[in-house]
Design a protein that fits this description.
With 669 residues, this protein is an alpha/beta fold. It has 27 helices and 16 strands. Helix content is 58%, strand content 14%. Bound molecules: ligand C2E and calcium ion (CA) (2 copies).
Length: 669
């Protein structure tokens, strides 16, 4: 009777498992669940045989001795058979490909058949298993073979799990590897004790652990589709990073799911999700599918090949071209796919989330594409844009980040520094120097540009005020205005208010505007420009020669100076000499001309030959900070005196100009 105790304990444990399964039956779903149920059934049969065998052996039930022998033979055979089932159970739950399971199962079955064969061979002399007077199995050859075959099955289980460690979560690995280790140890003990209470009870406990583990896994499962849910997906992503594996992750978005739900009802919507998830599991090369939210699915595939990615998208798109017959209805599902490769596109979980978000936004912003592979360059440029936006906001708040540089402009005729252009940079504590080409477009869309224009004007006015006597010798210091500035109500009054607050002569200020700005807001611009003109502010048409070069604007707007764009020098062709033609035309309109982008002696030569009055460019000086510009102003004042003796010579040959100018031009920075 003592020997039966372990079976009773085992039965109790099985009862607990069954009770718990019954209690939670609503959340139980799926194939893997069936396996644990099957395993429990097999185990109950094993226990029953074991109990009958004990009863028979102890004489508690009357059986002829031949039957008692048969019962005990079946009883001992039930151990390797139970292990074969467990081997199957382990394989199903851990092997990614089922054909490998066949290999393991065949090996186990083959060993068991050999064992059976041995028993049949020795059936006539009845000595394969021997039981002593204490009802314990005698350690003979038969017993040893039983233990060896059973241990071999444990070894097969062990190798299945350890060779597939990389496909398993740590938890799953521990659960599945414990079984063969515990079972094999208890079998060895069985061999030395002649009875198997430890084996019986430990198998019951292993079943209980497996059951509890499954239950826990259910919490990460989606109730409708049976797929693992977003919690499981996040855990999987973390695991991918932890193991440094290479994976392709797909996030699928059903475009028209809410429409389907609204039209046919939620129950039908659920069916659609089930059909779709069943299909997703059949897509070739896909390792796992997840349901992430109501209309979002995740897929994970091995590797980082674009071919795999496209083949998967192609399979999905191909399926979605056909309708889905669900119940009596035929519907079409439209799916968008965002693809992120790990680690190519993301180095950690946060980056992964950002990449998915970005790829999904890319998808949403283009209504033509059905799949988008994450693009790191695009992402970085968006990231950079966000950073610049932040830098702009803090610069507007703390205007010491806004730096105004001045680029000298020279008069070809008189050899003098005659003007300057104020150019803005942002010096951000974390991003460093940001150039206007980058931040002006962002400031324009963010509505920060006018605040920047105001700050730049304030800083320029302060500089003018502080260097009034030197600056007075210049024709103007110009500032660039943006198209957005022109649409701000009372912008002219605001800017004039700033100039007046510094008590400087407004005629020293110039504003540069581009043609495209004016075309965009013809009416407002005209009024604004006229207000400036009334206060003697110089108005400059910037970047002339790119775009339309609308003569109407030249004639109707109050421009004093036209600035020819640097592209004209860059693409200068001596044969056509368009520079000459343009300069002649502008002179007919009685405009003064500045040319920018003078980088070489040749550029200066062409400009001078075309009769252009003013030159600006790297050949003379890059934009410089206000301290250097102060020096340049002072140098210019000295040069002004020195150059009187040179005037005659340099007038004869304009190319001598640079030398004279270099007295006050500062070297490139
Ligand atoms: P822009 O008005 O055409 O200014 C001239 C640009 O050409 C400046 O670039 C200047 O550094 C550059 N440059 C000067 N000489 C040469 C040369 O010899 N060769 C070449 N390749 N480039 C030369 P920067 O400072 O990067 O400014 C770029 C643009 O940003 C400016 O073009 C202007 O449109 C805008 N900008 C600058 N500051 C402001 C501002 O305060 N407000 C507004 N609204 N726009 C500004
Ligand atoms: Ca300009
Ligand atoms: Ca320009």
């Amino acid at each position: 009777m003592i020997l039966l105790k372990s079976e009773i304990v085992a039965f109790l444990i099985v009862f607990i498992i069954l009770f718990d399964m019954h209690r939670n039956r609503t959340i139980r779903t799926g194939r893997n669940d069936r396996f644990i149920t099957e395993m429990i059934v097999v185990y109950i049969i094993f226990l029953s045989i074991s109990i009958v065998a004990h009863f028979a052996a102890e004489g508690l039930i009357e059986t002829p001795s031949a039957l008692t022998d048969l019962i005990s033979t079946v009883h001992f055979n039930s151990i390797p058979v139970l292990l074969l089932f467990w081997l199957y159970y382990t394989g199903v739950n851990t092997l990614p490909r089922k054909n490998r399971l066949k290999v393991y199962l065949s090996a186990g079955t083959f060993a068991y058949i050999l064992f059976l064969y041995q028993q049949i061979r020795s059936a006539d002399n009845q000595s394969f298993f021997l039981i002593d007077s204490n009802n314990l199995l005698v350690r003979n050859r038969g017993f040893l073979i039983l233990i060896l075959v059973s241990c071999l099955e444990c070894l097969l289980m062990f190798s299945i799990v350890s060779f597939n460690k990389k496909n398993l979560t740590n938890e799953k690995f521990v659960i599945y590897i414990t079984a063969p280790v515990v079972m094999a140890s208890s079998l060895v003990l069985f061999y030395y004790s002649g009875n198997h209470p430890l084996f019986t009870v430990s198998v019951a406990f292993l079943l209980l652990f497996n059951h509890l583990f499954r239950q826990r896994e259910q919490l990460t499962k989606d109730g409708i589709t049976n797929l693992p849910n977003t919690v499981a997906f996040d855990a999987e992503i973390e695991r991918i990073f932890l193991k440094k594996s290479k994976k392709i992750v797909f996030v699928l978005d059903i475009d028209n799911f809410s429409a389907i739900n609204q039209r046919y009802g939620i129950t039908f919507g659920d069916k659609v999700l089930k059909h779709l998830s069943n299909f997703l599991l059949t897509v070739e090369n896909v390792d796992a599918a997840y349901r992430l939210s109501s209309d979002r699915f995740g897929l994970v595939a091995d590797g980082e090949s674009y071919n795999t990615a496209t083949s998967i998208v192609r399979q999905i798109n191909k399926r979605c071209e056909k309708s889905w017959g669900i119940g009596l209805k035929d519907i079409l599902i439209s799916i968008n796919t965002a693809i992120v490769m790990i680690p190519k596109h993301a180095g950690n979980t946060q980056e992964f989330k950002d990449s998915v978000d970005f790829a999904v936004t890319m998808l949403k912003s283009s209504n033509k594409l059905s799949a988008v592979i994450y693009n790191k360059k695009l992402f970085l440029s968006r990231q950079r844009k966000l950073d610049v936006e932040t830098a702009l906001r803090s610069a507007v708040y703390n205007d010491s980040h806004i730096v105004v540089e001045f680029q000298p402009i020279f008069d070809i005729e008189t050899n003098r520094l005659c003007a300057a252009e104020a150019l803005t940079r942002i010096n951000d504590p974390s991003l460093g120097l940001i150039m206007p080409g980058e931040f002006i477009p962002i400031a324009e869309t963010d509505g920060l540009i006018t605040r920047i224009s105001e700050i730049v004007l304030q800083k320029t006015c302060r500089f003018i005020k502080e260097n009034e006597s030197l600056v007075k010798k210049l024709n103007y210091i110009s500032l660039n205005l943006s198209v957005e500035d022109l649409s701000v109500p009372h912008i002219a009054t605001k800017l004039l208010g700033i100039i007046d607050s510094y008590e400087i002569d407004p005629s020293i200020i110039a504003f540069e505007l581009t043609e495209s700005m004016l075309l965009e807001r013809m009416k407002e611009s005209r009024a604004v420009l006229e207000t400036f003109a009334q206060r003697d502010i110089t108005i400059i048409l910037d970047d002339f020669g790119v775009g339309y070069s609308n003569l109407n604007i030249l004639a109707k707007m109050p421009f004093d100076v036209i600035k020819i764009d640097k592209s004209l020098l860059k693409n200068y062709d001596e044969d056509t000499d368009s520079l000459h033609i343009i300069a002649d035309m502008l002179h007919r309109f009685k405009k003064k001309i500045v040319i920018e982008g003078v980088e070489t002696k040749e550029h200066l030569h062409y400009s001078s030959r075309a009769g252009i009055e003013m030159v600006q460019g790297y050949y003379f000086s890059r934009p410089v900070d206000y301290l250097r510009f102060e020096d340049i102003l002072e140098e210019n004042f000295k040069a002004d005196i020195n150059s009187n003796s040179q005037t005659a010579r340099s007038k004869k040959k304009n190319l001598g100009l640079r030398k004279a100018l270099m007295n006050f031009a500062i070297p490139d920075r």
